[in-house]
Amino acid sequence: MNSHCNGTGKQLVTDFYYNNGFSEPSLETKKTTVQQRKQHETSGKDAEDESRLPALEAAYSSILRGLGEDTDRQGLLRTPLRAAKAMQFLTKGYHEDVYDILNDAIFDEDHDEIVIVKDIEMFSLCEHHLVPFFGRVHIGYLPNKKVVGLSKLARIVEMYSRRLQVQERLTKQIAMAISEALQPAGVAVVIEAAHMCMVMRGVQKMNSRTVTSCMLGVFREDPKTREEFLRLTKTA
Ligand SMILES: [Zn+2]
């Protein structure tokens, strides 16, 4: 599979973003709301998780009984609680916001060469089967007077992958977040992943990998820029 997200015109990626109505409000608009929320959100997250835990635990007990298991046998006694906590951890990205991550990490810089971070490890959950898919993310962008701390790109990947996802959307969300925050001349994101819902259900699909890409701005308009990115991220 290889999907490209939509694009148009020879504009900056931000123009592209707004003209195509990719739903989310701008970073600036969100900024105030996020700052207002922020304070009680950090502690609010723990409280929210805590309050939802009993229902989630009961649901896992019910799943185990539905599978014909004896929930009173020793090995399963604390499984519903552990599974509930694990699932909350694996979906913790819902509590995070791009602005929280990038705050104080965007710098003015006259760098006009492609910046690439490749082989970012990614673990997510397929929203159709609730089983893992995981792999590697390669990110490139061509700065337009703004750069971001490199570790923050991995944090963006983390934030969107710790949610129930489909790989295509994950790819696009990462690209859009970088595009919106940095307003670069272009963004490229490629994800290679193995989906357990495919791998575990058929031996012949053991080695199948799904590749998705999202190219914005110059990476979409200019084949040479795109090729340079693809060449530099190619795994040996
Ligand atoms: Zn699936």
UniProtKB/TrEMBL annotation:
Pathway: Cofactor biosynthesis; 7,8-dihydroneopterin triphosphate biosynthesis; 7,8-dihydroneopterin triphosphate from GTP: step 1/1. GO terms for cellular component: cytoplasm. This is GTP cyclohydrolase 1. One of its GO terms (biological process) is tetrahydrofolate biosynthetic process. Belongs to the GTP cyclohydrolase I family. The keyword Nucleotide-binding applies. CDD domains: GTP_cyclohydro1. InterPro entries: GTP-CH-I_C/QueF, GTP-CH-I_N, GTP_CycHdrlase_I, GTP_CycHdrlase_I_CS, GTP_CycHdrlase_I_dom. Its EC number is 3.5.4.16. Residues 57-233 form the GTP cyclohydrolase I domain. Residues 27-51 are annotated as: Disordered. GO terms for molecular function: GTP binding; GTP cyclohydrolase I activity; zinc ion binding. It catalyses: GTP + H2O = 7,8-dihydroneopterin 3'-triphosphate + formate + H(+). Keywords: GTP-binding, Hydrolase, Nucleotide-binding, Tetrahydrobiopterin biosynthesis. Residues 38-51 have a biased composition (Basic and acidic residues). It holds the Pfam family GTP_cyclohydroI.
